[in-house]
């Protein structure tokens, strides 16, 4: 009997000394926890990718488009064309406020060729004589601001405007010191057409 055999055990559990019982190492719980976390993360990523694919193939952006359409109001109709008087309906009094003689008659003759009705022609009064520094001054009733002034202004761009207490629809054209000539007929006609075009509707978004 070997010296390693416990007393009273007899030979049944005799340890001979040439073989030793194998002991298993305890499993590390940390490895199990890390493996479980990795599995959960992988499953989560796989599920998110699946949802993205489903969204792409089923047209998931329709909801966003519908929301955009809801936030973007319907386009408003464009403003109606502005109604302006024809040159034949406008009576123009032409006055010369410069030192150049005969300028009022020359200007009046040209406006008559372009369809305007001519009234008085002569020199400007003392209130305006040599006192109009620009190309000219359009003087008329308040109603002329949105009527006769824009139409006559197409012939003389840059002319100043002023209203007075007159009751009739006549307009005074007082020629200023910087006057050289009226606009070319084609340019004046194009400017008048632009005035009567309807204003474009603003973009709703």
Describe the protein's architecture and organization.
- This protein has 205 residues and is an alpha/beta fold.
- Helices cover 33% and strands 13% of the residues.
- The chain has helices at residues 29-57, 62-71, 103-113, 148-153, 185-196; strands at residues 91-96, 117-123, 136-140, 160-163, 171-175.
- The N and C termini lie far apart (102 Å).
- 19% of the residues are buried.
> What percentage of residues falls in helices of 4 or more residues?
25-40%
User: How many E-type strands?
Assistant: 5
Q: Structural class of the secondary elements?
A: alpha/beta
Placed side by side, the strands forming the largest sheet appear as: 2-1-5-3-4
Helical stretch count? 5
Query: What would you report as the Rg, rounded to the nearest angstrom?
Result: 49 Å
Measured distance between first and last alpha carbons: 102 Å
The unreliable regions are none
Order of helices and strands: HHEHEEHEEH
Question: What integer is the average pLDDT?
Answer: 79
Largest sheet: 5 strands, mixed
Strand percentage:
5-15%
List keywords for this structure.
single chain; 205 residues; alpha/beta; five-stranded mixed beta sheet; 5 strands
Topology of helices and strands:
Blueprint: H1 29-57, H2 62-71, E1 91-96, H3 103-113, E2 117-123, E3 136-140, H4 148-153, E4 160-163, E5 171-175, H5 185-196
